[in-house]
Amino acid sequence: MIRTDANGRYRWSGYLLGFALGGFFDGILLHQILQWHHLLSAINSMDIRFQVAADGYFHAFMYVIAVAGLWLLWASRKAPDRPAGRLLLATILIGFGAWHVVDAVLSHWVLGIHRIRMDSGSPLIWDLLWFGIFGVMPLVIGWLRNGTDDDDRMQVSRSATVVRLLAGLLVIGAGAQALRPAPDNGFTTVLFAPGISQERIFRGIGAVDGRVAWTDGTGELVVIRIAAGQSRHALFRHGAILVSGAGFPAGCFDYLTTG
Predict the structure, then answer these.
(1) Transmembrane region positions (predicted)?
(2) What domain range is 239 assigned to?
(3) DSSP strand pairing (240-243 vs 188-192)
(4) What are phi and psi of 180, to 5 degrees?
(5) How many domains does the chain have?
(6) Given 82, 148, 159, 253, which residue has the most CB atoms within 10 angstroms?
(7) Angle subtended at Cα 208 by Cα 203 and Cα 214, rounded to the nearest 5 degrees
(8) Which residues does 41 contact at the CB level (< 8 Å), separation at least 6?
(9) Burial class for 62, CB neighbours closer than 10 Å (0-12, 13-18, 19+)
């Protein structure tokens, strides 16, 4: 059970922020930039709509964890014994490593929903490499640094304030990066709910003066160029469930390759 005192909140803020950072790191680097895998690459991999939705909701879950961590960090600011900034760094490392350990064991080996590098002939090597470098190593370093303290209480207070600020900025920055669509392409990717009629889809596209650049075979996943000054949010009124660039964590949309 999570401790409710200020020091407990301080520790748990680090665990949650580190865990969220691990998810953002995975999503930004492996899903978007390198495109080595998506959340459910090993399941129904030919259905782009399925992959788009899964990645979008994955990022949404990471945002929930990040917000919880930031709230706990704020709530712990009046901890009576002013824990050191290095303690927060240690717990962030533990959380970051824990994400990769959980991802490796659960996603790669137990459930088999994806591997680190789906196109590799030796996926286990990549899994173990990632597991060691980004999972075990941060966990060990964080564990060794966990519980260390300073004698100079003024220095402790200053270090805690600085680390709090840097940790918050790092998580917010990573979250903002995950929200960003692919740079300089000018397109918006939209996933409409299953069963939405083509007439309603095109009414929605027309509502934002959009032009279709690409669509999948079902017509429910479309890439459009929206006229200047139009709001992407209007698409939700016409049956869209995910829209890149509309404040929803769907940055992976615009990084997906379709051919």
Answers:
(1) 12-36, 56-75, 87-111, 123-144, 156-179
(2) 188-243
(3) antiparallel
(4) -70, 140
(5) 2
(6) 253
(7) 75
(8) 51, 113, 114, 115, 118
(9) buried
